[in-house]
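Lay summary. Proteins are chains of building blocks that fold into shapes, and those shapes determine what they do. In this project we predict the shape from the chain. Here is one chain we studied, written as its sequence of building blocks.
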Amino acid sequence: MRNRAKQMGELMYIRRIPGPNTVKLPDGRSMTRADLPPAGTQRWVASRKAAVVMAVDAGLITSDEAIRLWSLSKEELDSWRAAVSQHGIAALRATALQQYRG
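And here is the predicted shape, written in a compact code that computers can read:
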């Protein structure tokens, strides 16, 4: 591929994204941007919300970047983070909302 690009007079660039490529989570696992939901996700299940919360809390992405990537409100992201902080990831399930509200 590289030789072909060179023959065609094209240059190949790797897009550099600011911030870390990998972070270590408190449980010892590693997380990368590939572990995050696709930008523009509209159907939010607990596992996707949890991935975003873990990425923000671990410093993989900023909260501003998360808000922009997934069109979230600051209040929405803050509520996810508070739910995980107070009750754990199970609090992000839609069926658990009423149980943990209050």
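What the prediction tells us: Strands lie at 22-24, 30-32.
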